[in-house]
């Protein structure tokens, strides 16, 4: 039986030890390859000219071949990591750690792993999030799509009272739906397209934020982000029916 994709060999194809072994030049080439799909030619972020631009070794930058532009640019120019002071290898490690910690990682934990200051790790995490946000593919999902909502900031926290005679805390007795309309409550609705191969998991995810998990909110998101003829899987909540 096929196991979960994250347990498979393919999910472990690139690890921290491999990044550690890469030379500075190899890391630079890796970023160039990811950005332009090629290590030989670059697209100038100023004028968009795709060419083999002049490489200036001392500055680790290219100069645009277009005489009218002649802009100097690096592999990170025009991205969230532009004007970085950290080595590219540290940035690559941060991206890898961020991507493999599926439940998220705190800036403090990242700072310890990368041996950088807390503020540095904090800014790095925000830059990674910014680059994800700026590059989300908003084209419609198709095939098989799972939709579900997560309630964030649900109920007002009731003040803890002194122990009762039974030694049970009074707050524990408040029913789960006692205060369903916290003013800050938001529903993060996730629409996730699956790979057609069984067991491979999610291919692409689009998220939306709603005030309530009801049909108008879900209909709006599904009409915008899900192609017609898609098979949708949800839970038994009435809003999805
Ligand atoms: Zn240019």
Word description of this protein:
The protein has 241 residues and is an alpha+beta fold. The chain folds into two domains: 5-40 and 79-134, no CATH class; 144-240, no CATH class. The protein has helices spanning 16-21, 24-36, 88-100, 107-114, 118-134, 215-225; strands at residues 42-43, 50-51, 54-56, 61-63, 72-73, 144-152, 186-194, 202-210, 231-233. The strands form three sheets. A four-stranded mixed beta sheet has the order 8-7-6-9, covered by helices on one side. A three-stranded antiparallel beta sheet has the order 3-4-5, with no helix packed on it. The protein has a two-stranded antiparallel sheet with strand order 1-2. Helix 4 (107-114) packs across helix 5. The model has no long low-confidence stretch (mean pLDDT 85). It binds zinc ion (ZN). Zinc ion is lined by residues 44, 46-47, 49, 64, 66, 69, 71.
SSE arrangement, N to C = HHEEEEEHHHEEEHE
Q: Quick one: how many beta strands? A: 9
How much is the radius of gyration in Å? 24 Å
Instruction: Work out the count of structural domains.
Output: 2
The molecules bound to the chains, other than polymers, are: zinc ion
End-to-end separation in angstroms reads 32 Å
Total of DSSP H or I helical runs spanning 4+ residues: 6
Spans where pLDDT lies below 50 across 5 or more residues: none
Averaging pLDDT over every residue, what do you get?
A: 85
The percent range for strand residues is 15-25%
Largest sheet at a glance? 4 strands, mixed
- Strand order, main sheet: write it out: 8-7-6-9
What characteristic shape results from the CA principal axes? globular
Q: Which structural class fits the helix and strand makeup?
A: alpha+beta
* Percent helix range: 25-40%
């Amino acid at each position: 039986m096929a196991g979960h994709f994250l347990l498979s060999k393919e999910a472990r194809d690139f690890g921290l030890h491999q990044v550690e072994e890469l030379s500075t030049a190899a890391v630079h080439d890796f970023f160039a390859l990811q950005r332009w799909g090629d290590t030989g030619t670059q697209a100038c972020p100023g004028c968009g000219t795709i060419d083999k631009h002049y490489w200036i070794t001392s500055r680790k930058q290219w100069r645009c071949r277009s005489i009218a532009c002649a802009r100097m640019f690096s592999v990170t120019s025009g991205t969230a990591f532009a004007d970085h002071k950290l080595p590219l290898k540290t940035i690559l490690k941060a991206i890898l750690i961020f991507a493999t910690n599926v439940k998220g990682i705190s800036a403090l934990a990242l700072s310890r792993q990368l041996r950088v200051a807390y503020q540095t790790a904090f800014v790095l995490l925000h830059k990674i999030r910014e680059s994800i946000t700026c590059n989300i593919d908003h084209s419609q999902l198709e095939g098989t799509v799972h939709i579900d909502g997560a309630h964030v900031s649900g109920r007002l926290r009731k003040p803890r009272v002194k122990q009762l005679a039974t030694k049970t805390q009074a707050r524990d007795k408040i029913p789960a739906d006692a205060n369903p309309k916290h003013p800050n409550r938001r529903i993060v609705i996730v629409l996730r397209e699956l790979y057609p191969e069984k067991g491979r998991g999610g291919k692409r995810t689009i998220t939306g934020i709603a005030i309530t998990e009801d049909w108008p909110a879900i209909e709006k998101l599904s009409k915008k982000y899900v192609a017609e003829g898609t098979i949708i899987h949800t839970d038994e909540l009435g809003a999805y029916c």
